[in-house]
Amino acid sequence: MVDAASSPAPAPAPATERSLLIVEDDKSFSQRLARAMEARGFTVVTAESVADGLQQVERHPPAFAVVDMRLGDGNGLDVISALKKRRPDARGVVLTGYGNIATAVTAVKLGAFDYMSKPADADEVAAALLAGEGKKPEPPENPMSADRVRWEHIQRVYELCGRNVSETARRLNMHRRTLQRILAKRAPK
């Protein structure tokens, strides 16, 4: 965790205001993040669903958004997409507890500026939102390991195959039992 006082100040955001929409269905996490972002100078509005997030975007499109990927009523990327249509200069970050490479790519294509796995630190979120135009935030201190990247790829193919082990093994050119052993284990760090 980085101490905000010792970190260099990020470059100014492309928007002149610091309005922030947080769309998160985990109430306690949403409240903690909202308080932390208010302490960092943001004017925060929260929403607990895609529908609420879309309403907030229609009422007053914020300069920044932090959106959970999976919400009870749909995909948080719909909020990012709507925000980018209403306010092209807005900067959004997608948070998820179910991170994989495919969803990260999709998030960026739909207009998200960055993609972070939960639990995300408020300093990391603020740094991502406030990174200078055309710049990305600093790379993480502990990036995903090669084993984790492999595991993520296997999980993606498994999901795309409708959680069919035999079909996934065939497409990955892997023995079915080997795949079953990999799927039964926890994700590597």
Automatic annotation (TrEMBL):
What keywords were assigned to this record? DNA-binding, Phosphoprotein, Transcription, Transcription regulation, Two-component regulatory system
| Domain Response regulatory: from-to ranges | 19-133
Q: Does the keyword Phosphoprotein apply?
A: yes
The GO biological-process annotations, alphabetized, read as: regulation of DNA-templated transcription
Kindly list the GO molecular function terms attached to this UniProt entry. phosphorelay response regulator activity; transcription cis-regulatory region binding
Question: Record's Gene Ontology CC terms?
Answer: cytosol; protein-DNA complex
InterPro entries from the entry?
Answer: ActR_PrrA_rreg, CheY-like_superfamily, Sig_transdc_resp-reg_receiver, WalR-like
Protein name per the record: ActR/PrrA/RegA family redox response regulator transcription factor
Read off the lineage from the record. Answer: Bacteria, Pseudomonadati, Pseudomonadota, Alphaproteobacteria, Hyphomicrobiales
